[in-house]
Write a structure and sequence with these properties.
60% helix; mainly alpha; 0% strand; 339 residues
Length: 339
């Protein structure tokens, strides 16, 4: 999926607020109480999590537009691919899943029918159906990168990261230039408890697509988990620069800023997250928490534009070095099962 992005740099975010300063001892006490909430991470859901840090899959899974689905018995046996696809495009995923189920019964050798059944079932929350459909699609056409990747996403949701690794590795072997495949590799390695390898995979993805904002976000989240808050800032600054309207990126930037003592800049980031999504409870809570806090006079004001530029230069270096030299990824070391 491609996104149109802009490269307008934000102004320096540090400002002076006409509020009384809180004691540094009070600030330290407040911050110490929220550490655990800020570093939690859950990659399974595309919703805002219960932690200050938020992750989302690189491909979000919208909920069905309605809880009611067309009964399978009422779907005509000659339902067309176009009709089923129309239901999918309208986000009627349960209907689309039922329609594609009927469609593949009539056209069992069409890999794209099974692929769309898998996609529809996945987005309708029917994970077992989705997995079976994607595997059937691969049995008919084993060269489709997106089928391997979406099967990997389903397996991650089923808490089967090792099986997901096999499928995602297959995708990287088919197309070693796919940033999406290496971004998925990073997610799988993170789920397997291999953060350094995951960071390497995100670097590979960015060397292939310098505007891959989800790789920036996911890499930064791993750094936050490792309490490397300063290291997380450049990637998040660049992600927000490219997609300023993302509540997730703004929230995670706020977390890194807050943990580095840039309370005023964190307030701006959380406020931007709330402005982008008024239902974002965690961002609202974080905004309330930092409102009224001021930076220590000895803290150098943060320059997000400069941090974003630094990250751009890092990515340019990774690209010049070549994808396989900047990552900790060895796709050939994993045996790819036959579909």
């Amino acid at each position: 999926m491609s996104h149109t992005t802009s490269s307008t740099r934000p102004n320096r975010v540090a400002e002076t607020f006409d509020r009384p300063r809180r004691s540094p001892f009070v600030i330290a006490a407040i911050v110490s109480l929220i550490v655990a909430a800020l570093v939690a991470c859950n990659v399974k859901s595309d919703k805002h999590t219960d932690s200050g840090v938020v992750t989302r899959p690189d491909t979000a899974v919208p909920q069905p537009a309605s809880d009611s689905a067309t009964p399978a018995s009422t779907i005509p046996q000659n339902v067309s691919f176009e009709t089923a696809d129309s239901a999918y495009q309208q986000h009627r995923y349960q209907d689309a899943s039922a329609m594609f189920t009927v469609y593949v019964q009539r056209r069992p050798n069409n890999p794209w029918g099974h692929y769309m059944l898998g996609l529809s079932a996945w987005k309708a929350g029917q994970l077992d159906v989705a997995r079976t459909a994607f595997e059937r699609s691969l049995a008919l056409d084993s060269g489709q990168v997106k089928t391997y990747l979406n099967l990997g996403r389903v397996l991650l949701e089923q808490d089967k990261p090792r099986e997901a690794l096999e499928r995602v590795t297959a995708a990287t072997q088919i197309d070693a230039t796919s940033a999406e495949a290496f971004r998925m590799m990073g997610r799988v390695q993170s789920a397997l408890g291999q953060p350094d390898s995951a960071i390497g995979s995100y670097r590979v993805a960015l060397s292939l697509d310098e505007n891959d904002v989800w790789s920036m976000n996911n890499m930064a989240l791993l750094l936050i988990q490792q309490e490397r808050y300063d290291d997380a800032l450049p990637a998040l600054a660049r992600a927000v620069e490219i997609r300023a309207g993302s509540p997730v990126f703004q929230n995670n930037l706020g977390v890194a800023l807050e943990r580095t003592g840039h309370f005023l800049a964190a307030q701006e980031a959380y406020a931007a997250a709330v402005a982008a999504d008024s239902t974002y409870v965690k961002a609202q809570t974080s905004l309330s928490r930092v409102t009224g806090l001021e930076d220590d006079p000895s803290t150098t004001p943060v320059d997000l534009a400069a941090l974003a530029q630094k990250f751009e230069l890092d990515v340019a270096t990774w690209k010049a070095e070549g994808p396989m030299k900047v990552g900790v990824v060895k796709p050939d070391s994993v045996t790819v099962p036959k579909p």
